[in-house]
């Protein structure tokens, strides 16, 4: 998709060299959450336990019915392809872990329960220990922050500058969690452990004896971390991974936002004329076929004061507000380059898809009609399936008549 040499990015740039590549923000943020969950084996094991709890109840209608009589929020399965799936899987379990344990206990003590179900329920109860509670609270905080921003990025009227600011705010929130530390998480997990009746402390690991060489005088000179310190270091590893991935995954979006940031009311009012001219000149170099450098710089010197005089709350205005001002007062002829630059900026998409499903349209079409499927037909069917609203509005009689007229082989002889 984003390959510079063989992907869609290279293909689109070959057709139009002025096209700017910006990743789908919501999809990219989802990838941050997916890959961060795989940073360490402990994190992978945790999500495996969450999925195992869901599978245990969902695989039996009787167990699921018994669970739903107790819970107020249904458990959800974990998925890497659907946005917000991890948060939806964690939140019900985090809020209702006591009730889930009660249902597992009732399954064990039900006389007619088969042996396999009893053994599985006992195994799940063993897996729900203090470490699991700590990770449950930890991931609930992390995924709630990511999910909240993910939903905001899918608004129809959001622009790239707002999306870039939201990513900056998300980084600040994650950094704040890292700076605060995990003491509050451990404390909250200990309180939950008391409520559900399990030990509120990390299990002590057995000290591993290491054979020492003859020239070592110390019996045991390697560092042993306490369970709390080890948990904190593991959490910091996740925090650092999130911050790093947000930085490089949204680098292209930040660059685009930086190129157009002078077109907002705040920047126009706070920046000097020379600064606006410099930014206008730099943007004209990128879009040299659409913007005239000298005219654009001249427009910026005048538009800074003209817009401030004609617009209330100019400092808080967005690029869309400024573009509406230009059209409202018929200023397009006076400031053509300014209007073009704002239109280019507002047409750059932040998110290009809704929440991703478990199976894509292409996979569904391939499975259904794979025996007669060629690349051209697959692409055409994908367009029809994706644009189903337009396809449903077509008059099929007209389409069939048009197709028949083009494919007719009979020739009228005079």
Taken in chain order, the helices and strands follow as HHHHHHHHHHHHHHHHHHHHH
Please give the count of helices.
21
- What number is the mean pLDDT? 83
Approximate strand percentage: under 5%
Report how far apart the termini are.
55 Å
Segments where pLDDT lies below 50 for 5+ residues?
none
Work out the radius of gyration.
29 Å
- Extended strand count: 0
Largest sheet: none
Structural class: mainly alpha
Shape call: extended
**Share of residues in helices:** 55-70%
Provide the descriptors you would attach to this structure in a database record.
extended, mainly alpha, single chain, 414 residues
Give an overview in words.
- With 414 residues, this protein is mainly α.
- The protein is 66% helix and 0% strand.
- α3 (41-58) runs antiparallel to α7 (115-127), α4 packs across α6 and α16 (319-328) crosses α17.
- It is extended and about 80 Å long.
- The two termini are 55 Å apart.
- 25% of the residues are buried.
- The model has no long low-confidence stretch (mean pLDDT 83).
